[in-house]
Design a protein that fits this description.
Layout lengths: L16 H4 L5 H15 L1 H5 L12 H5 L3
Length: about 70
């Protein structure tokens, strides 16, 4: 069973990177490329997980925080 990405923002105090990283910063492009690559692998990841049992951590979350 694949896990879902759930943010626990109410539990932690942190700086929102969306507000800190300038709109034209190269990391934003890299992030889009990585997110697209992970999305294209979604069906590959899906077959690796069972429909029962304890939920796992979503693969994209293991690689990078979306």
């Amino acid at each position: 069973m694949r896990g879902t990405e759930e943010a626990s923002r109410s539990l932690f105090s942190y700086v929102d990177l969306e507000e800190r990283v300038p709109a034209r910063h190269p990391l934003r492009l890299i992030r889009r490329i990585v997110n697209d690559a992970l999305a294209s692998l979604d069906t590959v990841f899906e077959v690796l997980y069972t429909d029962f049992g304890r939920p796992s951590i979503a693969p994209g979350r293991l690689i990078c925080h979306r």
